């Protein structure tokens, strides 16, 4: 039985693990490592320190399905809808630019529930496993991590952001061709900050929208009342408010500590929403790798670094930066794994 390591418990990694388990269950042992304390990646959902407040999606906000992807990825949408993981987005979103006949979906339990759905049946999952290096050992890979012993695997799938792949120690750089290295170095990500404001149960907002896109502020580009956005107003729980900064603001302040940036964002927020009640807690997230602006060119959804032992890279940088891009990449990685294993 082959041991397969998937590095990254975001959407692409969780889908890879799930699809691999469904298709090659008797042939593989699947292990997923993630350096964070929980799954989700950029589809993470944060809980308030106070259990009386609603959780907040600090990364991806909802899923948009174009007619073409609704058809080609019908099985994935159908599965998530029938499981209650996805629901149509019904709340009022001010400034939303709807394209063609696309449909928007939200997650009653938060965006991380999509990732958890696919991970629930798939793998041995370990958090706080920060991969630092890969070394070829004959027909297998020795994978080193920041803390804990190294382990050996027959195949490795890397789904973390491309700059983190390029930073790995060991043999990865030796096996990347000059062309592959150039392709990876050309990948560009946007950066932004996100705030979650958690409020007590008796809080009432003076506005009725679920989310709002801001076009006339250099700092803030999006605000959402998370429970309204999810169609999930829960009696007895205080609301949470999610704020995303613009990409130019994120880039300008990227190397500053988030504790120094948070007051700037809050100052702008109070200009946009004067009279906003006082939150009981605030969480600030710096997304250094928010969305892929420039993906790997002429790529089938994955990049095979080495055939034997298999080392393959996947994720939205090898397709495009949304739900369907991750599905495409996971399917592409799966085909490479099936051909190798």
Tell me about this structure.
- Helix content is 28%, strand content 29%.
- The protein is of the alpha/beta class and 341 residues long.
- It has 2 domains: 1-35 and 128-186 and 295-341, FAD/NAD(P)-binding domain (3-Layer(bba) Sandwich); 42-110 and 191-290, Alpha-Beta Complex (Polyamine Oxidase, Chain A, domain 2).
- A 6-stranded mixed β-sheet has the order 9-2-1-13-23-22. A 6-stranded mixed β-sheet has the order 7-17-18-19-16-20. Strands 12-11-10-14 form a 4-stranded mixed β-sheet.
- The longest helix is centred in the last third of the chain and has 18 residues, at 323-340.
- It is globular and about 65 Å long.
- The model has no long low-confidence stretch (mean pLDDT 95).
Total count of domains: 2
Count of DSSP E strands?
A: 23
Poorly predicted ranges: none
| Helical stretch tally | 11
How is the topology of this model organized?
Blueprint: E1 2-7, H1 11-24, E2 28-34, E3 45-46, E4 56-57, E5 63-65, H2 67-72, H3 74-82, E6 87-88, E7 93-94, E8 103-106, H4 112-119, E9 124-127, E10 131-137, E11 140-145, E12 151-153, E13 155-158, H5 162-166, E14 169-170, H6 172-175, H7 178-185, E15 188-189, E16 192-198, E17 211-213, E18 220-225, H8 226-229, E19 240-245, H9 247-252, H10 258-272, E20 281-287, E21 292-294, E22 302-306, E23 310-314, H11 323-340
Parallel strand pairs: 1-2, 1-13, 2-9, 7-17, 10-14, 13-23
Antiparallel strand pairs: 3-4, 5-8, 6-8, 10-11, 11-12, 15-21, 16-19, 16-20, 17-18, 18-19, 22-23
Helix pairs in contact: 1-4, 1-11
GO molecular function: oxidoreductase activity, acting on NAD(P)H
Signal peptide: 1-16
Pfam family, one: Amino_oxidase
């Amino acid at each position: 039985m082959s041991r397969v390591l998937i590095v990254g418990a975001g959407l692409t990694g969780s889908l890879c693990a799930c699809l691999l388990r469904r298709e090659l269950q008797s042939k593989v042992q699947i292990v997923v490592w993630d350096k964070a304390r929980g799954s989700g990646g950029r589809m993470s959902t944060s809980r308030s320190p106070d259990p009386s407040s609603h959780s907040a999606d600090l990364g991806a906000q909802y899923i948009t399905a174009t007619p073409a992807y609704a058809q080609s990825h019908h099985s994935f949408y159908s599965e998530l809808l029938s499981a209650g993981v996805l629901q149509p987005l019904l709340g009022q979103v001010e400034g939303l630019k709807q394209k063609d006949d696309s449909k928007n979906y939200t997650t009653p339990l938060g965006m991380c529930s999509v990732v958890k759905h696919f991970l629930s049946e798939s793998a041995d999952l370990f958090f706080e496993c920060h991969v630092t290096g890969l070394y070829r050992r004959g027909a297998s890979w020795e994978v080193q991590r920041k803390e804990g012993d190294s382990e050996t695997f027959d195949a490795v799938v890397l789904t973390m952001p491309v700059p983190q792949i390029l930073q790995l120690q060991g043999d990865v750089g030796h096996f990347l061709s000059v062309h592959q290295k150039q392709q990876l170095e050309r990948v560009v990500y946007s950066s932004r900050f996100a705030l979650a404001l958690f409020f007590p149960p008796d809080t009432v907002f003076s506005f009725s929208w679920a989310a709002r896109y801001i076009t006339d502020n250099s700092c803030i580009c999006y605000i959402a009342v998370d429970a309204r956005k999810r169609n999930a107003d829960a009696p007895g729980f205080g609301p949470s408010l999610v704020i995303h900064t613009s990409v130019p603001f994120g880039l300008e302040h990227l190397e500053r500590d988030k504790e120094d940036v948070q007051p700037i964002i809050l100052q702008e927020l109070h200009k946009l929403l004067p009279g906003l009640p006082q939150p009981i807690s605030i969480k600030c997230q710096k997304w250094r790798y928010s969305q892929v602006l420039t993906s790997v060119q002429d790529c089938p959804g994955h990049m095979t670094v080495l055939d034997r032992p298999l080392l393959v890279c996947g994720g939205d940088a090898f397709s495009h930066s949304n739900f369907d891009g991750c599905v495409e990449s996971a399917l592409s990685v799966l085909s490479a794994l099936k051909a190798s294993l």
